[in-house]
User: What shape does this take?
Amino acid sequence: MAVDNRHRASQETWQHGGVTAATSSTLFPQGSTPGAYAATPRDADAVLDGLDPEQREVATSLHGAVCVLAGAGTGKTRAITHRIAYGVRAGILQPASVLAVTFTNRAAGEMRGRLRQLGAGGVQARTFHSAALRQLQYFWPKAVGGEVPRLVERKVQLVAEAAARCRVRLDRNELRDVTGEIEWSKVTQTVPEDYPAVAAKSGREAPRDAAEIGRIYATYEQLKRDRGVIDFEDVLLLTVGVLQERPDIADQVRRQYQHFVVDEYQDVSPLQQRLLDLWLGERESLCVVGDASQTIYSFTGATPDHLLNFRTRHPRATVVKLIRDYRSTPQVVHLANGLLSQARGRAAEHRLELVSQREAGPDPVYAAYADEPAEAEGTARRIRELITPVEQGGGGIPASQIAILYRVNAQSELYEQALADAQVPYQLRGAERFFERPEVREAGLLLRGAARGGSADPALADADIPSQVRAVLTTRGWTPEPPAGSGAVRDRWESLAALVRLAEDFAASRPGATLSDLVAELDERAAAQHAPTVEGVTLASLHAAKGLEWDAVFLVGLTEGMMPITYAKTEQQIEEERRLLYVGVTRARRHLALSWALSRAPGGRASRRPTRFLNGLRPGSQAIGARTPGGGGGIERGAAAPGGGGVRRRRGPVHCRVCGRALTDAGEMKLMRCEGCPSELDEALYERLRDWRAEQAGQLGQPTYCVFTDKTLLAIAEAVPGTEPELARISGVGRRKLDRFGADVLALCAGRELPSALDDEGDADAGGSHSGDPWQNSTEK
Assistant: This one.
């Protein structure tokens, strides 16, 4: 894409890149129901309506640095857009002084749409690259002179030429991987001559000899200089250079932008962090949002260190933890929490224990298949049942609300064939973009012509928008009923049908709108790459699924060697694979299925094993390694924060270990489960514990509850702890009781018999029993 500087922005509008602010739009509805658009809040206070306590804290903490640790499905986008909108509506923030930064055009477009709906139009929401490019375009003539070099969108061809000049032959996969290494080098600010040493120190497995890649990288950079072009990474590098070398330009940017919000902060690269630091200067007017447990792009240079070190760099920052999961059922959340409970490393130490806010749903389904084709066929068969209407005995779930997620794109072929055989429509995510499809481009031209009165049926001149759209698209192959089978004809129909549904939703939300308004909406969606829903099952890699969600998710191919992937060797790489599976699990709202094949092809040896990440979680498997406790929600204020007298902590809610629901009843909290949830009580152990407790109480001359209450004994008999830390996590087992009674309880849980204290009066303390107990009339700690 060439950068056109013929129409430069005025001094007053450079932050928009010369583009005027978009008018109010219904582009991005709030809520999950298609076509449901919320009314604009009447005032600043109304912006806060419907926020939970932690989200409200995010929205109202408008001074100083703020770090929002937001688990999957906890409403982080809602929290930060309401934060910006509240600041603008309350007169605390000027719209033009706010820059919200995220990582995809779609996310930035969604954020702009939500802000407009909240009455905060004019706020800049861009990707790092988009924001940097606007600044580079504006300041280049002043800082360097002339026009910004042409931007090369696809660097693969240039890398191939550089390799040829170095007399290195690369196949298609190697070319892609070497290009990735060059991108990683640039975002980590590694120059070509340093690549071999830095790559080795970082533990990267280079696709070719590191010295060869360094030479290709150097030649690639020389080719760009010779041709006067730049790549996307150069946009950030050059913007950083301009701001570092020209303090006057940096001051101008800082005068313009007074407040920054960064979404998906766990994905920030060192280069992006450097740019952010230059934008900020010495100020702390920054709000970052992220989740270290969703760091899955380290191979591109992303690192959660900036998120995890935020409090170190900003000691007075307010930290807010969002753990209320509004997306997934307790059953899905329970699996997600369990998946991370055995994680290791620094990100695991900061993991968030999610608490579902939804009604209970079905348990996750685990399935082992004989071979990969059988797994694909079984998955397609289950999806066929889910999309069958309820009145016909099916699940009644739209195909667009179902996804099949896999580790690598090469796995999709089997599932495409299986879905086609089952006559289930599907769409490939990460393939051709919706608005770049020929039929969609052609439909857009026809609708634009119809809006101008050039090609619409005169009989439909007074018809509603959906009728006009159907009339236009009928000429290009749309029909009320889909064509039989799959393939190109069905794909074309699905694209046109998606435009028809979009027209129906748009008309319902905008009474009185015209076809011209719909065309403007389509143009805005195309610019933001916000495609309408195509009525088909989504096929996507786990990486491509980040940020999305469906009613039903099928996680397939979960075998050792695929999850974790074979080339994940180090602990850091394996833990990222675990986080990748966690991202997949948390995409599901209600239905979740996990499957694996025991062999690759029919008749093959059943030598494959399901992923280690499900050990202790799927039925019949044993947990490996100790589980790490997760962090609760709440708010922490910096020691010197305004109005704060030190760090304040709010304890997160206790939640059911079976269904994940937040608990408020004291008895349920002690049991760590709802009274109505299934009990895993070991009745024989419970009776042994009761007998032991009676003996201890008799020796102490105290009621039995002074040893342990019935609820605590029930919790012990259900959990059957095997170690002191596991026993200590049970409510009612304090430090003193653990020291006094822990050895006895753990012995009983292990099935060992204890000698009676009366067997040897001279050794009454054996096994943890004591007379003359000092805690008379005490309560449980």
About this structure: Residues 192 and 214 are 5 Å apart (CA to CA).
